[in-house]
Structures are given as structure tokens and as C-alpha cells.
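Let us work through a complete example step by step.
Step 1: write down the sequence.
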Amino acid sequence: MKLVQRLHFALTPVVCALVISAGVIVYLWQVNEYRTLERERWLNRLSSALIAAEYESRAMGFLSGELAGSEQFVRHLQDTGDFSVRNFLDAHIAHLMSEKRTEQMGAVHLFVIDDLFTITAANGASDPFSARELPSDIYQLVFDTHVLVTLGEPFTRKREVYIAANGELRATVISAHDPVHALGEKRSLTRKNRSLMVIDAPLLQINKLIETVSQFPDVSLSFGSIKNYEPEISHTQIENAFIDGEVFQVSGFGISLELTILDSYFSPFKRELLAKTLGYVAVIIVTLLSIVHIVVRLNVTGPIQGLLADIQRGGLELRYFKRSKGNSEVAVLRNATSTV
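Step 2: predict the structure and record it as C-alpha cells.
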């Protein structure tokens, strides 16, 4: 077997093993980095949506406070049965709903309900020949609050987040207002003849996030409400042996979102990265072997073939060897034999 062939048989497995090992390490590192970046990207989206939901809820509270402090609403509390006062309140509510800052909140529903559980004012055009009705999604919540107030239980204000029948995530802010005492006063906490103000609006950023998640079949998002209000956002990874992927819970501001990322979500990236890695590994192996082959040809087999040619031309007679100025093994051999 020729020297070049022996060298190729020895170097090719070693070079391939080293380059493939390096390629596997780089591939696994890139996959892990991509998984980490995607996880952080989704968690940041959920955190931003929860923060936006908190500000949207505060906007609903500001709207409630603005209406509660208006002259029309205060006069209405004094006599909820006065239809002329009701008309003035309806007009004022329509004015608030027409403002740009309110329109940016989306489809807002506003209702004023007296102590007899009758809707006395609301936004939007209403049919004078039909009674106003609460949306079915929040009817039970408002009714339970009304019962709580009529029983004399302490109550001021609360916020509930729910999923509407159309799949939209909405928030409802309910506050109880007394005709005599201001909201929040101890004397008004248990009064039974208080009127309820109900403001219902969508959580736009979370709904936008839900729409974005729906475009990824390997990512899912579920909603849950938590009783304890936490002013900070927390991330928790949930262990689930029945899911081939990762499950995270992001909670804060009374809302809990559960994000599921299946392993198949990363499959397109893995396939693309694998193809690129194999291509780079093949190019590197061919390049290294080519460089080794060229170096061996120029520095090893070339001089040896020249020595053999001299031997053949000289009939194995030492006087035909040419002296060499180099320091290689072949040059040393030439100089040693030519001096004999």
C-alpha cells in the first residue's frame, strides 16, 4: 500500500470523528440557545400582556371614577326613578363613550343598576320598546354582587376577568355607590340601597396575544383567574409528564396565563440547522483532507518520488545521487549516500 493511501486511511477517520464531534456539539448548543431565546420571547410577551391588562383595568377604574363624580350620576343616585335625570345620565354616558380615550378601550359596556336590579342607564342606543339587558356572560356575576349588597355584606368594588362566549378575554369592574355617602366610606360599606355601576371591556393586549398564539399549532395559551392580587409578575415552570414540551405559568395582577410549547415547535429550526450543520461538516472535512493531501504531496511523496527516480536512472549506483541543500530526511539521505 502506498504511503499516501496509508496516510489517508489513518487521517480520514480521525478528521471525520473530530469534525463530526465538533458539529454535534455546535448543533446541540445552537438548539439549546434557540429554545432558550424562544422561551424568553414568549414569556416576555405574556408579561407585557399582563402589564397592559393591568393598565387597561386601571383605565376602566378611572372611567368609573369619572362617571361616579359627575353631577348627572350623583343626581341620579338621589332619585333613580326620575326619567328626566336618567336621560341626562344617558347623554353624559354617551359623551364619555364617544371620547377617543374611551374608544381606544374597545367595545365597552357600561350599566347603572339600582337597588331593585333594574338597569337605569347604559351606553349605546336602546330600543324604547324593549328592556335593557345585561350580557349573558356577566349576568350571574352582577346578580351575585347585587345579592351581596342587598344582604348588607361589606362591598365596595371588585374586578373579574372572564372568557366571553366568543372566546374574547374581558374584564368587568363593579362598584357600589351610595346616594348619601361617598364611595369607600365605612358607613356606606354595608348599606343595602346602593346602586351598582358595571363597566365591562376587553383586555386588548391579551386578546391580541391569544390571536398570535392561535397561528402556531404547537403553542397553546390558557387563562385562569387567581384570587390573590399580586402586583408583580412571576414565572413558574410546571412539570407535566403527559406533554412532550414545556409548560409555564405566568401570573400577576390577578390573572394567570398558562403557556404550553410543544417540542414539535422547534422541529423546523432543528431540520434547517441540521441541514446547515451537515453541509458545513462535509465542507470542513473535504477542505481539511484536501489540505493534508496537498501538503503530503508537496513535502513527503514528491521528494521521495524524486529520490526513487534518481535511483532508477543511476542503476542503484551512489554516484548518480544529487546533493541537496535541504534539511529533510530525503535531503539527508541524498547527502549521506553521495559522499560514500
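Step 3: interpret the result. The longest strand covers residues 169-177.
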